[in-house]
Amino acid sequence: MRWPSRYVLKRTAVTALLAAAISISISSGIRYLTGSEADTITVVVRFVLPFMIAIPLGIIWFSKLESLDMAYRSLLKQASDLAYSASTDPLTGLLNRRSFADQFDLAMEHGIRGGFLIADVDYLKTINDEYGHLTGDDAIISTAFALKSALGEGSLIARIGGDEFCAFIPLRDGESAAELIARIEGLAGRQFRERIGKDEPVLSISCGYEVCRQGQTFRDMIAQTDSNLYRKKRARKNIARVSRKKWEADRVIS
C-alpha cells in the first residue's frame, strides 16, 4: 500500500483539527448551558474521538481526490499531446499544412497585415539519392531551424510538403524581405554544415515572398507566391546551366 502523499496528510490534519475544534466547542457549549460537569474519560473521548474518525476518513477521501486529480491531469496532457501531434510536423515541430492554413485564414479575417513566404529546399531528391535520407532529413531540419531563428516567435511557420515550407510574417519594422531571405539562406547553410560535419553537399534554398492583402486566403497566397518562387528557381537553374557549360568549355580549351 502506498504511503499517503504530503498533500493528503496535510489536508487530513487540517480536517481532523477542524473536526476536533468543532466537537469540543459544541460539547463545551452544551455542558456550559446544562451546567453539567465532565469527567476525565468524557474529556479524553471528546478530544480523541474526532481524530479517530476524521483521520482515516480524511486519508481515504483525500487520497481518492488526489487520484482523480492526477487522472484528470494525465487526460489533459494526453489530449494536449494529441492536439499537438495533429497540428504539427513530427520531423521539424513546425505547424502542418492544415493547421497553418486555418490559423492564417483566421489572421486574414482579423485584418492582420504581413507577408507570406514560401521556402523550398533545392535538390532535396539529389541529396537523398547521393547522400542518404538522413542527410536529407538534416537539410529539412536545418531549414526549419533557419526559419524559426530568422522569423521569431511572432510568425506562423509550417512545413507544407516534403521540401516545402511557408510562413506568415506579421508586419514589422526592420530588414527588407530580400535581407530576411538572405539571412534565412545563410542560417540554413551554416546549420546544415554543422549537422553533417562537412562542407558537401551544400544546402541551398529558394524563397518567394508576397505581401498579404485583406481578404486573401491560404490558397490565394500559395498560388501567388508559388509563381514568384518558381521564377527564382528557374533563374537559378539557368545560371547553374550557363556556369556548367562555361566550365566544360574551359576544360576543353585547356
Work out the oligomeric state of the chains in this entry. Answer: single chain
- How much of the residues is beta strand, in percent? 5-15%
Given the C-alpha coordinates, what overall shape results?
elongated
Gyration radius (Cα, Å) is: 34 Å
Task: Kindly name the structural category.
Answer: alpha+beta
How many strands, what sense, and barrel or not for the largest sheet?
Answer: 4 strands, antiparallel
| Helix/strand order | HHHEHHEEHEH
Provide the helix percentage.
55-70%
Sheet with most strands: strand arrangement: 2-3-1-4
Structure annotation, total helices: 7
Termini separation:
87 Å
Can you tell me the residue ranges where pLDDT is under 50 for at least 5 consecutive residues?
Answer: 239-252
Instruction: Count the beta strands.
Output: 4
Q: Compute the average pLDDT.
A: 81
What does this structure look like?
This protein has 254 residues and is of the alpha+beta class. It is built from 7 helices and 4 strands, in the order αααβααββαβα. β2 and β3 form a beta hairpin. α1 packs antiparallel against α2, α4 (124-131) crosses α5 (133-151) and α5 runs antiparallel to α6. The longest helix has 48 residues, at 40-87.
Short précis:
The protein is α+β, with helices and mostly antiparallel strands. It is built from 7 helices and 4 strands. The longest helix is centred in the N-terminal third of the chain and has 48 residues.
Describe the protein's topology:
Layout: H1 6-34, H2 40-87, H3 97-109, E1 114-121, H4 124-131, H5 133-151, E2 156-159, E3 164-170, H6 177-196, E4 205-211, H7 218-253
